[in-house]
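Input structure tokens:
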């Protein structure tokens, strides 16, 4: 069922692209081919028909997308985020040891009887 809806999704997208390209634009792009179709679609030409057709195909695309999402979630109980393997670092980081007080040189002391202000 999911395969059928996926194929239908691609077909709907291609049909929407073609319908949008055939619509009249301000620069008349691919809409120039619709001049001969005026008698088939009415006095206005295919503008109203293609706009309605594109709207209906858009609604079908949205419904098909929702259906695909619903079916996929029912068949696959876990999400892609749950499939990601996270490596946990259980080892503790090495903390550098503090050197003993005998290894650290002492700071020279200033004699207290020295008069600094002269």
């Amino acid at each position: 069922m999911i395969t059928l809806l996926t194929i239908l999704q691609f077909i709907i997208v291609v049909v929407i692209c073609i319908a949008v390209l055939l619509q009249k634009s301000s620069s008349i792009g691919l809409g120039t081919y619709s001049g001969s179709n005026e008698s088939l679609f009415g006095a206005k030409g295919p503008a109203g028909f293609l706009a309605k057709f594109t709207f209906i195909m858009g609604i079908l695309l949205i419904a098909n997308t929702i259906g695909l999402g619903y079916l996929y979630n029912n068949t696959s109980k876990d999400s892609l985020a749950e499939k990601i393997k996270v490596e946990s670092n259980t080892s503790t980081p090495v903390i550098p040891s503090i050197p003993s007080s005998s290894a650290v040189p002492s700071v020279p002391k200033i004699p207290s009887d020295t008069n600094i202000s002269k």
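The mean pLDDT is 75. DSSP finds four helices and no strands in the chain.
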